[in-house]
Amino acid sequence: MNLYQLTVYKAAEMLARREITAQEVLESISRRIDLVENKIKAFITLTLDQAEKKAGDLDGRNEITGLAGIPCGVQDNLCTRGVTTTCASKMLEGFIPPYDATAVGRLKAAGAVMVGKLNMDEFGIGGSTEKSGFHSTNNPWDPTRVAGGSSGGAAAAVAAGEVYYALASDTGGSLRQSAAYCGVVGMRPTYGRVSRYGLVAVASSMDQVGLVARNVTDCALVLNVICGYDDLDSNSLEAEVPDYRNYLGHSLKGMRIGFPREYLQNDVDGPVREAVKKALLKYEELGAVVEETSLPHSKYALPVFRLLASAEASSNLARFDGVRYGHRDEEAGDIAEMMSSSRGRGLGPEVKRNILLGTYVLSKEHYDAYYLRAMKVRRLIKEDFDRAFEKYDLLVAPTTVAVAFSHGERNEDLSGMLTVPASLAGIPAMSIPGGMVDGLPVGLQLMGPALAEGTLLRAAYAFEQATDYHLRTPVLEV
Amino acid sequence: MTGKYEAVIGLEVHVELKTNAKAFCGCELSFGALPNSHVCPGCLGMPGAIPVLNRELVEYAIKTGLALNCQIAGYCRFDRKNYFYPDLPTNYQISQLDLPIASAGYLEIENEGVKKKIGINRVHMEEDAGKLVHQGSIMTTPYSLVDLNRAGTPLLEIVSEPDIRSPREASMYMEKLRSILLFLGVSDCKMEEGSLRCDANISVRPRGRERLGTRTEIKNLNSFRSLERAVEYEIKRQIEVLEDGGELVQETRTWDEDRQVTLSMRSKEEAEDYRYFPDPDLPPVIIDREWIERVRETLPELPDQARERLITEHNLSSYDANLLTMSKEVLDFFDACVAEYNEPKLIANWVMGELSRLLNQNNMEIKDCRITPSSLADMLKLLEQGTISGKIAKVVFEEMFNTGDAPEKIVKDRGLIQISDESAIKAIVDEVIAGNPKVVEDFKNGKGKALGFLVGQVMKASKGKANPEVVNRLLKEELSRP
């Protein structure tokens, strides 16, 4: 077995006992990247030189604990001090932030070794990573297929063994959908649980920093580090952060699980539905009480998300104007021309489409009909969840309507259908490997009430231990 | 001026607050600092930076709202006002649209003895933009530099009801608002430096008609004088258009200081759609009763209260009281002086007379002045004791103003002590009588004016130091001798 194949907790244990060194771990990862990155194209920027230096420093210390010495990746919309942060946009090509995102800073402080910045759909707008301004990322299970998006780089890198885990973001389901397509664990914590500071905003009211990992235990370990209050983010939650490892290994006896029927209807491909039904049976086997329930307003979630996310994006992305940083058209005659042509050339078509839609949604004439109305429906969607969680500890559903699709095969319009409701409600949700269809992973989505990350981990861990989906890895070697 | 027309005026005032930091980041406020030296990822609008509300901004806003007799909202919210401009780092301004922090208040002005309440429609919080530095005129500059020191400076926008009816009332409203803000200590209120800015909404209508006329908004009013003149000009212009049978257009106009006219900037149709929406980065601000009461307790004495106090406690006229309460520094000076020397009316006369004359002459403010309340009190004591005469007092006062020396020292150094010693004065009187037989004769023949001349001669001979009362008495005595 190669070192890159270890789990985070196993590698951490061996590092702590000095059975292996951080440099050896990094070397293994580095070789793996050399071997498979051409096929996967998960990274926008590699930072192996800095990583080597860090690993060397760590090996020189008296002790190595926690995440120290374990290589990770960071989605390229999280600011990294001194390392280009592009959001996969030509607009920010070469942009080097003078500060770390809070979550990145916390990982660094814990000794994490960042090996690179991961590909995504430009500014997080898209569901396949085909909308990256640089290149698309391939699914490790089948490189002719997409890795999902917008966190395709993060999920693919984790699945392909190029990193142990990746910091990623989730606005409408980005990291959950990508994790589902790539057969890994994706955790979107409660809105405000992880600071958004340094995450380049696209839809501020839904953007959330989370992570992609290979298994539930690794997920808990990383969560322990990145969660917590931050006074640089006004929406950051002050609630104390438990040790998430304590939620692992408990019986599910008596746990109440609901499955919303709207999430298992005809939009969902038959084989995926079957896989999820099987997973529900597994939960019953494990002692949980599983019942059908309803989230009637979730069917409006996709249009509501599109309206709100594009509205917020149109405003958030306005700062990319060529004045202070990023791409600038030096040929332009005056300031208005400079701004519009910098944006015209720097931003990709999908981003522009969203800005146009958002600008329309917020215009005086249409604000009430679209923005305000969408806000009202958003509340109804959230209230559905509130009601459900009076009865259930968590809800289980598919993460996506289908397995990963082929490059260029379809636009991903429906891909967020099952993930956006949790985003709109601000609740924690995760995707775990829940089955296989024709050699491709199926994601099982768990959703819980605010701050119930522990409950999600407990249920996810029990399922993981009772199945072997998480142990399967794609074969990439030639 | 307006004849059969009535002007309807409302003012929108922007006040730069002097809080401990910018509105949504930790940067210090600055004026005149090295460009872009007071900036951080937040106020530079860097990717990933998030605004965090400075609670002192809310405190200042509550304070101002209370001082303007407003309702303070229990729940208010920040909205984004979206527009592209190179001095606006995020290309949206954080402001408040439909849930402002304070509303429905008023302030009172007094025009020729008549008090009038001017309604305050709303007070809301927002952030300032940076500044563009052009090379010469904005029209011809080859490039412009961006200075973001001011970006994120907290502002209050205070919007009046259209209750103002004349240019004079408009400037009185501004003066009153300014003095309230100065008393609160929330702003420097320097119009010339831009920490107090004002736009005027103006319309005219035939007297007696309810419906409002078409209004224009006048920008670029950088002083009380330009406010008054611009309003006056605009009213006249609107009346002329109507009298000529023309129609007014709703538009934004700018005051051209050089030409003393208002010029059209853009019409309503050209107005931008700011696409306001609630700022998702900032949670709503909840203001409970307790917070409001805590702020209320910190409210200082306000101009109206001070004015009332001066009238009832010190028997000052309402005119004097108005003048003394225009500025917090002046009032503090007055109060401190009265505390040392309980002659309020006399002190008021000196403060508004000699002191303000000298300040104006030297283009200074009272806080920069070398005369302290105690030194003025000391000088007035010398006057009361008869050590110096009233005439000499003005000389001493000016010297105090110029040198900052204590009045006793000036009097001593320059030998300005009043001569009250009768024998010394008698000697001069005798000399003057002996030297002016013709005038003495006139006096004896009933020419009253002659006495004044003789008094003047004695004062002159004593270099102004002789006690005028004693001079008068002795002269009369001597001249009445047979």
Tally of DSSP helical segments of chain B: 15
Name the shape of chain A in a single word: globular
Shape by Cα distribution of chain B: elongated
Mean residue pLDDT of chain B: 91
When the domains of chain B are counted, the total is: 3
Which architecture of the domain at 3-250 in chain A per CATH?
Alpha-Beta Complex
Count of DSSP E strands of chain B? 16
Indicate the CATH class of the domain at 3-250 in chain A.
Alpha Beta
Number of strands of chain A: 13
List low-confidence stretches of chain A: none
Q: Please identify the oligomeric state.
A: heterodimer
For the largest interface, the chains and their residue counts are: A-B, 44 and 29 residues
Enumerate the strands of the largest sheet of chain A in spatial order, edge to edge or round the barrel: 1-3-2-6-8-7-12-13-11-9-10
CATH topology (fold) name of the domain at 3-250 in chain A = Amidase signature (AS) enzymes
Average pLDDT of chain A, rounded to a whole number, is: 96
Strand arrangement within the widest β-sheet of chain B reads: 2-6-7-10-1-11-12-13-14
Q: Order of SSEs of chain A, N→C?
A: HHEHEHEEEHEHEEHEHEHHHHEHEEH
Task: Please mark out the parts of chain B with pLDDT under 50 across 5 or more consecutive residues, or reply none.
Answer: none
In percent terms, what proportion of residues of chain A is strand?
Answer: 5-15%
Can you offer a commentary on this structure?
- The complex is a heterodimer of chains A (478) and B (482).
- In chain A, helix 2 (22-40) packs antiparallel against helix 3.
- Chain A has a domain at 3-250: Amidase signature (AS) domain (Amidase signature (AS) enzymes, Alpha-Beta Complex).
- The longest helix of chain A has 24 residues, at 368-391.
- Chain A starts with 7 loop residues before the first helix and ends in a 12-residue tail after the last helix.
- Chain A is α/β, with parallel strands linked by helices and 478 residues long.
- Chain A has helices at 8-16, 22-40, 48-59, 102-109, 152-159, 174-182, 216-226, 270-285, 301-316, 335-346, 349-362, 368-391, 420-425, 453-466; strands at residues 43-46, 71-75, 113-118, 138-139, 142-146, 165-170, 185-188, 208-213, 256-260, 289-293, 394-398, 429-437, 440-447.
- Helix content of chain A is 37%, strand content 15%.
- In chain A, the strands form 2 sheets. In chain A, strands 1-3-2-6-8-7-12-13-11-9-10 form an 11-stranded mixed beta sheet, with helices on both faces.
- Chain B has 482 residues and is an alpha+beta fold.
- Chain B folds into 3 domains: 5-293, no CATH class; 301-413, no CATH class; 422-480, Arc Repressor Mutant, subunit A (Orthogonal Bundle).
- Chain B is built from 15 helices and 16 strands.
- Chain B has helices at residues 55-67, 167-184, 224-243, 289-297, 303-314, 318-324, 328-340, 344-361, 373-385, 390-403, 407-413, 422-435, 437-444, 449-461, 468-480; strands spanning 5-16, 71-72, 75-76, 79-82, 92-95, 102-111, 114-127, 131-134, 144-147, 154-160, 196-206, 216-221, 251-256, 261-267, 277-278, 285-286.
- Chain B has a 9-stranded mixed beta sheet with strand order 2-6-7-10-1-11-12-13-14. A 3-stranded antiparallel beta sheet of chain B has the order 5-4-15, with no helix packed on it. Chain B has a two-stranded antiparallel ribbon with strand order 3-16.
- In chain B, strand 6 (102-111) and strand 7 form a beta hairpin.
- The interface between A and B is large, with 44 and 29 residues.
